[in-house]
Every structure is written in C-alpha cells, then in structure tokens.
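Reading group handout, session on sequence-to-structure problems. Before we discuss, look at one worked example. The prompt was deliberately terse, the way you'd type it at a terminal:

> structure Lipoprotein

The input record follows.
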Amino acid sequence: MKLHRSRRLVAGVALLAALPLTGCTTPGAEPGTAARVGDRTVSEKDVDAATVELAQVQLPQQIDASGVTQFLAIGPLLLDKMSDAGVPVGTAEARSQLQNPRMTLSKPTEEVLRTYVALQEVNQAQQILQQGVGDARLTSQARKVAAANDAFEQELRTYVTDGRVEVNPKYAKLPVNWVYQNGMGTQAPEGQDAPREAPAQ
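And the output record:
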C-alpha cells in the first residue's frame, strides 16, 4: 500500500523545528508510557500499534518508533494551531494520500498521518513565502500555515522550558534522516542518540 508521492507526502522533508526531545528524557518513566507533553500521555501500546501499521503503509520516508513517539507527543499541538489558523488537516485529507483510503487504521496511526501532512504543508508554506510566489491565494494560505507553525513552536518551547516534556529513553533516539533543532537553535546531526545527562555536581 503506497502513498502517492506526487502529492503532499514527499521524501526527505519531515522537519520538527525547536524540538529538543533528546534533552528531555526521563530515566524513571512510568511503565507503559512512551512520552508525556503537558497533560497528554502517549502510551507504548499506541506507539507500537502505529509503528506496525505505518510499516504496511509505504511512506516515502518510513517512521520508526522514535518518530512515531514524536508525532503522537507533539502532533496534536501543531494540528490544533493549524485548525485555529483556519488551515485544519483532517483525517479524510490524510487518508486521501493513501492508495486505499478505506484501509483500516487505528486512531494513533491516523494522527501520525495527519501530522505528517501538516508538516508537509508547513514546509511548502515556507518555500512559497521564501520564493515570493505571485499567487495571492497561495500566499495567504502559506501565511496562515506559517503563523500556525510559529504558534506551535512557541507553545512547545514553553512546555520544554517548564519541564513538561518527558520522553521514555527507549524512544529518545531520533530516527535516521530527520533534522531537528537542538536547544541552542543550531542544527544537530541526523539520527543521533540522545546525549547523556551531565552528572550532578
């Protein structure tokens, strides 16, 4: 079951800016918990289910358990901001990318796909605004998406600063071919392991 590569889901674009999850691992994570962002908890059960299903849906860029954890942990933040900005990403839109839109998928998998589509739209919006496309409608849409992404990043930074982002070390390795921004605002190597915490002084 493959996705149509000519549409939104294209390879090598997934970008989670300002997400220093590798610095927020929790050695004493509760059993069965993959991550927690604010009051939202992501269970290992949901991560495992989505990872298995996504392996059957041949994405241009496969997402491993670490990536699924990131999508399920912070995806709702981005999706909420997109909706607030008037550019929502629905389940039907995410499923339309599949060769078989009616295939059976769990809710966690649908949420991952929605976030995947949202990230593509963020990337496209950035390209449109950088290139100065003359289409007024596209530019207006891109500005809404960019504003949603800015609001998302700001909220996520607040969660991180307040220590409300926790990730089970089991899922703290960034998937290969992902790019993220570390807490210093500089690009970190792809697919690297989470850094060890500094010993207490």
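Points for discussion. First: The helical segments are 44-56, 65-84, 91-95, 107-131, 136-161. Second: The CA atoms of residues 51 and 65 lie 6 Å apart.
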